[in-house]
Amino acid sequence: MATARQADPYRKLLRILLVLLVVFVLLLTAWFWLDRYQKANFDVRQEEIALKNEEMLTEYNQKLNEQLKNTSTTGETAKRPEPAAQGVDVVDLSQFPLVGGQDVVVTRADALMGGLLLLNRWHALPADFVTVEDQLKSVMNETSFRVPTSNNKVVLFPAAIAALDAFIADAKEAGLEYYNIYEGFRTMDEQTTMWRDEEAKHTARYSGDALTEVTRRAVAYPGTSDYQSGFSFRVGVYNGNDRVLNQTAFQDTEQADYLNENGWKYGIVFRFPVQAYPEPDTIDKSYITGINLSMNAYRYVGIPHAAIMHAKNWVLEEYIDYLIAHPHIALYEDGVLKYEVVRMESGVADQEVSIPADAASYTVSTDNMDGLIIAITH
Fold this sequence. Notes:
By secondary structure, the chain is an alpha+beta fold. Among the domains are: 78-116 and 301-378, Phosphorylase Kinase, domain 1; 128-186 and 225-300, 2-Layer Sandwich (Muramoyl-pentapeptide Carboxypeptidase, domain 2), CATH 3.30.1380.10. The chain has eleven helices and 13 strands. The chain has helices at residues 9-70, 108-112, 139-142, 158-173, 188-200, 208-216, 243-247, 254-262, 286-289, 303-312, 316-325; strands spanning 88-92, 101-106, 137-138, 155-156, 179-183, 232-237, 268-270, 297-300, 328-333, 336-345, 351-356, 361-366, 371-377. A hairpin with a 2-residue loop joins strand 9 and strand 10. The termini are far apart. The relative contact order is 0.14.
């Protein structure tokens, strides 16, 4: 009888280990593919959720904008006024809030240099105006002599200089040249000297309040002259080879006609209309400006404001008074929205405001009556 063969325990253990290794590799491979599948499925799900959230947010914003357009600030449902289908129409939207979308920071310096700083006998230069005086530039130097001035000391804020530069270039294309800017910004010292010189002419006959009043007929009290805004300037014509033109009163020239007719397109308005001046049909506005002199003084206010003032035949004082009573207005041209203007009560600190997301551009300005005025171009 043959003897039984004894099994090798090490070989048996090795087989068991190989089987376990194969099982482990299979489990590891299965876990790897399962994990990848779960991650891929998770990413797809996350994408679907993000897209759904985006759709919901877009739908929400659309509904919110519609609600803002059709709900008054008092919470009552109101119908947004329809502009005229033809021509220029200024519409009062004061019952409707400005639809925001993008937040911008506006500074006090921006506001002081925005163009609507009101200076007259009732509203004096704010004390912090000195903080922006270093932004005043020589008109002659900034335009490389394209805008003629009496000398290089005629200075204005850059926005006014740019407007004059554009206007004079276009006037030249239209065949009208020889504009000359004779005066721009006046310092407090310059205005004080002018006041004292004029006052001295009347001291023999007047004193006290009477002296102040008679002096004010010709010169604004220091701190209340529109020339101290940095946006007001006196215009004339000069051609070294044309003596007749030089001796012609500015408002009797073609240059004046062109400026009066087209200046608003560049943000420029005639500042002090009096009876029959600058044009025969001009209505006297001295009762509100406080100036009853025939002066060739023009003022940069910015294109949106000038367009509205031109459409309504308003001077700066009338325009600001209207905005106080109607703090949200819009100008439409042939039924299409061009400009929106909003006035809000504001202090002197820098602040954040919200403007429409689709705004092409915007400007801000103080009115020197505790208001911040935002003009949006669409």
